[in-house]
Each structure stands twice: as structure tokens, then as C-alpha cells.
# Entry
Amino acid sequence: MKSVADRVAESLRWLERTGTKRNREGMARYGIISPKAFGLGVAPLRARAKRLGRDHALALALWETGWFEARMLAVLVDDPAKVTPSQMDRWARDFDNWAICDTACFALFDRTPHAWKKIALWSRHKDEFVKRAGFALLASVALHDKGAPDAPFVRGLRLIEAAATDERNFVKKAVNWALRAIGGRNRVLHREATAVAERLAGSADATARWVGKDALRAFASPATKRRVARGDSTG
# Structure
């Protein structure tokens, strides 16, 4: 059986062969800035991760390389049951663009038993991407954990309202994402989230107004109404 070091080296060689300058330039256009990137899209990374399978030790070693795509692979192969709170904090401090932040939250962290504690902690953090992670994680749990009760999401709405004046681009978009995700869960949370969105839309603060108005537009859409109805039927 190959060692972890051998498997990391093999993965890095594959990433180097597969990455392209064109993809690196495309990443930059979408605001995915990383000092170490090979230039790969998500599809080949997901296919590679599927072949590698769940591997916590490999994930930790891939992350330590510092390469953007290696870290994306790390997120996709890690075992949520083995992820620790300290690991989540270490990785969050390394986030340097929205793509790795959101993928870690959406594909890994929200499946751990530590998600709600990190939401509460990170949503008040000073660092832009750590704070984004708090709300990206809240959105991810809202979208994925169909059996969760309403109460923690109501508390999440208070975090959203408190952070809605943060004008930093990557924070305000995640705050908005979390608000829209909670508002799409079921009728009760839709009502609660709409009340928050209306207060924000009437705020004197321009960032809060944007968050609230954009959420209200989303709540009025047929897609959100269908999600709310499905949430009621399965709740």
C-alpha cells in the first residue's frame, strides 16, 4: 500500500499535468485568487476525489501543500466523522478565496457535528473569509440538513441581522445566501426570514438594504415558494 506521502506526490503530479493556464486565467476572472494554483475546474477534481475515496490522512496532507486544487481535493476526500474542531479552525484561517471557503463549508464542514458551534464563532470573526465561512456554513446546513429543527435557524437569523451591515463583498454575499437559504426551508422559517429581510430592506445602511431587498426578491420567486412547500410537506 502506498504511503500518504506517495499518494500526495502522485496527486500533485496529476494536478500539474491536468491544470492549464487558460483555467488559471478563468479562475482569476471569477475572483478565485490563490498564490498556488494549477488551473483545474471542479468536474475533474470531483472525478479524481471519487477515485481516491474517503481518506482523512490524505486530506490533511493535501491541505498542507498549500495548492488550491490540492486543498479542494482535501475537502472532497476528507471524512466528516474524523474532522475535528481544531482542524476546521486551521483550515478556515487558510481560506484565501471564496471558492475554497464555500466548498469546504458546502461539501464537508456542514456534515460534521461541529457545524453550529463554528457558525456561532466564525460569524463574529474579523477576518473576511473566516466570517464568510460562518455564513456559508449556515447556508449549507440550511440547504442540506432537512431534519434540523427550526430553533437554531431562528438563532441564525439573529446572526445574519447583526452582520448585515458588513460591507465587505465576500461577507455580505454569504450573509445574503444564508438568509435566502433559511427562508426557503419551510413556512415558519420563511415568515421569520421575510421579517428580517423587510427590516434590513428598510435600513439606513446601504449594505443591509441590499441584503434585505435581494432576499425579498428571492423569497417572491416560484423556486423559493416550491422549496418552502416541500419543506412543509417533509417537516
Summary: The mean pLDDT is 96. The chain has two domains: 1-78, 84-235. DSSP finds 14 helices and no strands in the chain. The longest helix spans residues 128-144.
